[in-house]
Amino acid sequence: MSRIYNFSAGPAMLPEAVLKQAQEELVDWQGSGMSVMEMSHRGKEFMSIAEAAEADLRQVMGIPDNYKVLFLQGGASSQFAMVPLNLLRGGAKADYINTGAWSKKAIAEAKRYCNVNVAATSESENFMTIPAFDSWQLADDAAYVHYTPNETIGGVEFHWIPEVGDKPLVADMSSTILSRPIDVSKYGVIYAGAQKNIGPAGLTVVIVREDLIGQAMERTPTMFDYKTHAESDSMYNTPPTYGWYLAGLVFKWIRDNGGLEAMAEINKRKADKLYAAIDGSDFYANPVDPECRSWMNVPFTLANPELDATFLKEAAAQGLTTLKGHRSVGGMRASIYNAMPEAGVDALIDFMADFEKRNG
Ligand code: PMP
């Protein structure tokens, strides 16, 4: 069996050690005589898996005790609605920072429930940078502040946490969670679809400060109320059990590999060398402000877009796949989440240099 280097933005690569353990346990989980997929979510076997996964995530991220961790479905996209439904708490306004395609989706959904104050936007700079914090126009009567720490499509990332005072700070961390240590206590809500740094698609992790639970808007669907899930340990209905189990294996893998400090060190190194290769050539380009370049999603263009198809084809032939940029921006995008080995980034850089030599 030979594994490829898959640069997909998500679903993305999973650590090989995790896949192997899942394979070993697939038919018979630890002598239980059944697969995790076949377990009752309320049985003692799955309960132990669920509890261990949460405990490991809490340890790896340093999640304080006054936060609930919810293991939900519906993707990060459902959180675009759940956040206003739960966090407006009688208010009529929320602050949103617009840094790209995913911010825009969150804003569009929030507008269904409240007045959105776009406190800062980099749209006029084509989302190639992040608005300086001193230019943000936060509203006094906004119930919370929402931002997207990493824009998966644009490849723009906050390398700092906004200090928004008493207002709950809400972050769509789908494509950056677990890539580095963060201070969870600075946030009201953190949410992320699993399919990048956590596990397989179908699971959504929500970390929510307890005092923000229990004030959902009237008529909020039961399944969209954080309280429903917080009170039932994410077992109000059948949770995505297999995804939860695999996420647990990923949390252990992170812990066993040095935790988030180690992830950050490797991620920074991987990103730095890829950007250096791009910047060091006239053949490749990345337009993002160097201060805000993503460690996780690295978009780049070829000087001659007519070579895009050949580039993708030859890269794939060498086991470097899914490098095509998002359909909205074109060019290339290399997503290099935790599970992308450094050797994969090295192989991409070597291929890029060779391709340039032959076509530049
Ligand atoms: N937010 C961000 C930053 C994303 O990258 C994505 C998925 N690519 C989403 C939200 C949507 O996530 P989901 O598909 O889990 O709804």
Automatic annotation (TrEMBL):
Pathway of action: Amino-acid biosynthesis; L-serine biosynthesis; L-serine from 3-phospho-D-glycerate: step 2/3; Cofactor biosynthesis; pyridoxine 5'-phosphate biosynthesis; pyridoxine 5'-phosphate from D-erythrose 4-phosphate: step 3/5
Record domain Aminotransferase class V: where: 4-348
PANTHER family: PHOSPHOSERINE AMINOTRANSFERASE
Binding site for pyridoxal 5'-phosphate: A76, S77, W102, T152, D172, Q195, N237, T238
Compartments (UniProt record): Cytoplasm
One Gene Ontology MF term: O-phospho-L-serine:2-oxoglutarate aminotransferase activity
CDD domains associated with the record: PSAT_like
Keyword check for Transmembrane helix: no
PTM sites of type N6-(pyridoxal phosphate)lysine: K196
Cofactor remark: Binds 1 pyridoxal phosphate per subunit.
Alphabetic keyword roster: Amino-acid biosynthesis, Aminotransferase, Cytoplasm, Pyridoxal phosphate, Pyridoxine biosynthesis, Serine biosynthesis, Transferase
Catalytic activity: O-phospho-L-serine + 2-oxoglutarate = 3-phosphooxypyruvate + L-glutamate; 4-(phosphooxy)-L-threonine + 2-oxoglutarate = (R)-3-hydroxy-2-oxo-4-phosphooxybutanoate + L-glutamate
UniProt EC number: 2.6.1.52
Subunit architecture: Homodimer.
Protein name per UniProt: Phosphoserine aminotransferase
Cofactor(s) the protein needs: pyridoxal 5'-phosphate
Protein family: Belongs to the class-V pyridoxal-phosphate-dependent aminotransferase family. SerC subfamily.
Recorded superkingdom: Bacteria
Residues reported in the UniProt entry to bind L-glutamate: R42
Organism: Thiohalobacter thiocyanaticus
Function: Catalyzes the reversible conversion of 3-phosphohydroxypyruvate to phosphoserine and of 3-hydroxy-2-oxo-4-phosphonooxybutanoate to phosphohydroxythreonine.
One GO term of the biological process aspect: pyridoxine biosynthetic process
InterPro entries: Aminotrans_V_dom, Aminotrans_V_PyrdxlP_BS, Pser_aminoTfrase, PyrdxlP-dep_Trfase, PyrdxlP-dep_Trfase_major, PyrdxlP-dep_Trfase_small
GO cellular component, one term: cytoplasm
